[in-house]
Amino acid sequence: MNQPMLKADHVIKSLKRHGFNVICQKGSHIRMHHKDGRVTTVSSHSGQDIGKDLLRKILRDTELTMAELTLET
């Protein structure tokens, strides 16, 4: 599957739509938590896309699909 390049702001907004909340931030690393216990970290460097390996890890941690993450509402 060819993954689209996504900005950290888009990923964070999408995770918030799916029930994740920011629990802490250390520098450019934003830790997000879901009430059911899922946790992930998003690296937010201004103007840069999230790398494909980190994006894959975020999807695995959050148990979301690429379609759910990229869905605009």
Query: How do the helices and strands follow one another from N- to C-terminus?
Result: HEEEHH
Major sheet description: 3 strands, antiparallel
Helix content: 25-40%
Distance between the termini: 23 Å
Radius of gyration, CA atoms, in whole angstroms: 11 Å
The second-level CATH architecture is 2-Layer Sandwich
General shape: globular
The spatial strand order of the largest sheet comes to 1-2-3
Task: Using the coordinates above, name the CATH class.
Answer: Alpha Beta
Structural class: alpha+beta
Give me the CATH superfamily.
Hypothetical protein
Our count of helices gives 3
Instruction: Quote the average pLDDT.
Output: 90
For the secondary structure, the number of strands is 3
Low-confidence stretches: none
**Do you know the CATH topology?**
Metal Transport, Frataxin, Chain A
Strand content: 15-25%
Number of domains: 1
Structure, described:
The chain has 73 residues and is of the alpha+beta class. It has one domain (8-70): Metal Transport, Frataxin, Chain A (2-Layer Sandwich). It contains 3 helices and 3 strands; from the N terminus they run αβββαα. A 3-stranded antiparallel β-sheet has the order 1-2-3. A hairpin with a 2-residue loop joins strand 1 and strand 2 (29-34). The radius of gyration is 11 Å and the shape is globular. It starts with 7 loop residues before the first helix and ends with a helix. The mean pLDDT is 90.
